[in-house]
């Protein structure tokens, strides 16, 4: 008889169902976040203020000063320095 038992040893169908439930819950969460982000950004439009001032080679994020986004920021992005204007 096997006397080596552990709380984390889930074998057979029980372990399979727990793994599937965990993966499906992660999938549902990520799909929900993707859909809400897509719906929020679908209402934004952008324009380029001065296209001749955009440099091919420049510092990171230096060309973002030329982009104006009409709408509000989505998802708490603090890395980019886009200019947001309300519609």
**Amount of beta strand:** 5-15%
Summarize the biggest pleated sheet: 3 strands, mixed
Strand order of the largest sheet: 1-2-3
- Give helix % range: 25-40%
How many beta-strand elements? Answer: 3
What is the string of SSEs from the N terminus onward? HEEE
Q: Indicate the structural class.
A: alpha+beta
Any idea what the shape is?
Answer: elongated
Radius of gyration: 24 Å
Number of domains: 2
- The CA-CA distance between the termini, in Å, is 72 Å
Low-confidence stretches: none
Mean pLDDT: 78
Count of DSSP helices?
Answer: 1
Indicate the topology:
Layout lengths: L11 H30 L3 E4 L18 E4 L12 E3 L2
Parallel strand pairs: 2-3
Antiparallel strand pairs: 1-2
What's this entry about, in short?
This protein has one helix and three strands.
Question: What would you note in describing this structure?
Answer:
With 87 residues, the chain is an alpha+beta fold. It has two domains: 7-42; 44-87, no CATH class. It has one helix and three strands. The protein has one helix at residues 12-41, and strands spanning 45-48, 67-70, 83-85. It has a three-stranded mixed β-sheet, with no helix packed on it. It is elongated, with a radius of gyration of 24 Å.
Question: Key features?
Answer:
2 domains, 3 strands, single chain, 87 residues, elongated, alpha+beta, 3-stranded mixed β-sheet
